Amino acid sequence: MKSKGLWGALALVFVGIIFGAVLVSGFGLVRPSMADIKLGAPMPPVTLNANASEFSKAFIEVAKNVTPEIVQITVVAKTENPHGNLFFFPFQNMPKEEEGSGSGIIITHDGYIITNNHVVKDAKSVKVNLYDGRTFTAKVIGTDPLTDIAVIKINASNLPVAYLGDSDSLKVGQWVMAIGNPLSLTSTVTQGIVSALGRGRLGLINNSYGVEDYIQTDAVINPGNSGGALVDLSGAVVGVNAAIATSTGSYIGYGFAIPINLVKSVSKELIAYGKVTRGYIGVQIGEVDDAIAKSLGMNKPEGVIVQSIVPGGAASKEDIKPGDVILKVDGKSVNKPNELQAMVATKSAGSKVNLTIFRNGKEIDRSVTLKERADDTKNEPVINKDNSDENNSESNTVDLKSIGLSVRNLTSQERSDYKVSNGIIISDVKPYGEAQNQQLGQGMVITEVNKEPIKNVTDFKKIVDSKKGSAILVKVVDSKGTSMFVGLEIPE
């Protein structure tokens, strides 16, 4: 009996040993302890050097320090119903209220905030959400549609204030960060580079006096970023994000910011006066292309050409003439119309600017005291009522195949309609010719060539024939009465 009990005990011990071995053999019947679990490789594949670590740290520090200075703005605005009312015709285009959102930048400790005009336009109510979670009702202090800048105010104190940098020192290729509230995603940070500077002709401001001189960036910007900050790696605000290039309504590659130097001058006036008393030179201007440069005897395309003088404007009282090329404003070079507009937009009416002008092969200096624009000022050429009809036969037409242009003499009625005393009218423009390339169109009137009046098509043809292998400066007037200079290269 004892031997059987011994064997039974031994059997139980053996079974226990086998069972224990099974438990620790990895069959999954018992989980290992946390201390025994080792996940992934023991070291990262790349060890960052000090420069790379500092570069990454710069982005982190900017995000940490600047984000509290950016606010979310929620606006309830009255808008026109874009679809109308299909059932009640008398109430078509009935106003309705819509809610939108954007961003803003705190610029004073007591609650002044800059944003875009289009963010708060037609606002019935404006709410501001701070980074710390507080919400305030804001008052619109002033707006400037021509630069798309607005200033609002909340009743607060000891707010974190953004450092406003120097946008003139920006370089293409420089790292920047966009901070705002895109798609209602609060406190979003993206990064990229400055893709271009002085970007204009975007058609974002529907006004001929609108200032479009944008910083272009590939930092991701989406709806809701408007009014937020574009900052450099020191955390300085260099621009106010305003728009995106898109065919979908969302980001597809490029965004645009208003340079902070322009924003600073505009916001100061809005805070002080509630509006901007902007000064104007009183000229219509255009870009100097290669053909215009050649026609004027310039070594290369530079500056902006004065297309016409606004009657009663500042330039009309000084020695500024159509056909002059403005090379510099206060010693700073300008090469695009929007660059000149942006420079002047930072100055108030009554300020004086010094212009360096190219005229008749020489550089001259002129000083102009800026004037505020009169909204009803129009630039209309004076009609010489004593002009005879001797050159106005409609049948007198000349076809200038070398430049892809056909012209004929003006009738008396056309002189009256265009408000000109002399000139010839463009009757046809050939596809892909020099005239079309320079955006000349049927119905435009040529009044001058090389700053000399043109009376008839015979005079015009003689000049073209005599200028083969060179260029001529042509002044044209369109059906709206707008005049401009165009350069035409004449083939050999």
Tags for this entry?
492 residues, alpha+beta, Thrombin, subunit H, Pdz3 Domain, 4 domains, 7-stranded antiparallel β-sheet
Give a verbal description of the structure.
With 492 residues, the protein is α+β, with helices and mostly antiparallel strands. The protein folds into 4 domains: 87 residues, Trypsin-like serine proteases (Thrombin, subunit H), CATH 2.40.10.10; 107 residues, Thrombin, subunit H (Beta Barrel), CATH 2.40.10; 94 residues, Pdz3 Domain; 93 residues, PDZ domain (Pdz3 Domain, Roll). A 7-stranded antiparallel beta sheet has the order 5-4-1-2-3-7-6. Strands 22, 23, 24, 25, 26, 27 and 28 form a 7-stranded antiparallel beta sheet that branches. A 6-stranded antiparallel barrel has the order 8-9-10-13-12-11.
Brief overview, please?
By secondary structure, the protein is α+β, with helices and mostly antiparallel strands.
